[in-house]
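Final report, closing paragraph on structural work. Over the funding period we assembled a curated collection of sequence-structure pairs, and we close with a single example.
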Amino acid sequence: MASSGTVAVLGGGISGLAAAYKLTQIHPAPKRIVLFEAASRLGGWVHSSRNEDGVVYEHGPRTVRPVGESGMTVLNLVQELGLQEQVMNVQYGHPSSLNRYVYVDSKLVRLPTELSSLFKTAPPFRKPLLAAGLRDLFTRKSSKKDESMFDFVSRRLGPDIAEFAIDPLVRGVCAGDSKEISVNFLLKSLKDAEQKHGRIVVGMIANALRKTPPSTLPISDLAKRAKSERWPVWSLQGGLQSLPETLAEKAAIAGVELFVEAPCTDLEFRKDGSFVVRCGEEELHSSRVISALPAFKLAGLVEKAHPNLAQMLKSINCVTVGLVNLEWTGRKLNKDAFGFLVPSSQNSPLLGVVFDSCSFPQGDRTIVTAMMGGKWFKSLFGDNVTEETLLKVALGQMESVLGISDPPVRSQVHILRQCIPQYVVGHYDRVKEIRRYVDHNRLGLDLTGASFDGVSVNDCVHNAFKVVEQSTTKVSV
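Its predicted structure, as stored:
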């Protein structure tokens, strides 16, 4: 068919589904929207298993934070999709929101949150937290535009904070190395405060005193409730996978053509600015392409026509995570908490463990999720590790760390290969350069997804919506 008015969406994860759904809402909408997904299911890394007895395991994101404009965007979407009755939230002050542990020197240590920790030494830190604030006040700002999270925090707040708070945080969020990940990934506001005010503490005080301009984003009743009740996190009954499932359902009703087991095998750039999207022997002529693919996969599609662009895309690496869901009958944990994370200095195969049944109980059972590998997956497990080996390692860690020696009544193991992009130092400049290349060459290609502007569910949905809105004027009708 003719390309005019046809938009192809590559990738059926949460970003691609959000983009396709949003395309149906713009005016005028494209005449045809076609989404291609290589896997046999939609949703990408948002993946829930529903056992026959109703017990749910999460194999990717499990909770969402209702924070900022992106958090509001997703809550608005949840209500728009009619999922508000399925929302379950952790109450403000719940142990899973207050208690965070790190595994240091073969024991679990609760990270201090009390005001008294400012003035007295509380493990795992070797100095009172007030010392970190004083260090910041007497540290000059760096001229570096970007640096690693570890280096930034170590320089401004001390090596203790970097090793025992920031390093495990990075391992938990992106399974990465805090000595490589950009400070602008999770701590951009602190870096900006240093650059503008010279001190983090001064910048934070200035920001607290400054009036935040009201958001222009409409606020749903659900988003208002989350704000007024101060939800730490929320999820969905039946698993977070209900979000992409419902997105796909609503998109299909609105006319989006969804294809699974349909990997894009070639992307031809035409001289008139249109595309030929090939999936096996099938061809789609499209006026515009929105890619929600991982950067390294998109690189393979553009390499023939744009090798320089492919090289830039390949520079955004991803890591592999071994994920093990474990279930026991009865209460096996002696701590109520979100779970624990493991600093890289501890040389453990674990990145961390989530106490799933603490946040959202599922009857008289204990459910945890062990996360392993990440940046260190290959050095720990090699290239050909089996699921049986990962299960054995996870069970050994449960016994040595949590004292649970009983065999689980049920378990699942997933090897999530190249699942989380790594925003190493210089990442945001690389993304700007990639988009500059696309715009300069008028490629008619829009980029969204976890590889570029954020890895969370909130980021993926919010940025997919933005990309669609920004490209509206470019889509022919």
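The mean pLDDT is 93. DSSP finds 18 helices and 19 strands in the chain. We thank the funder for supporting this effort.
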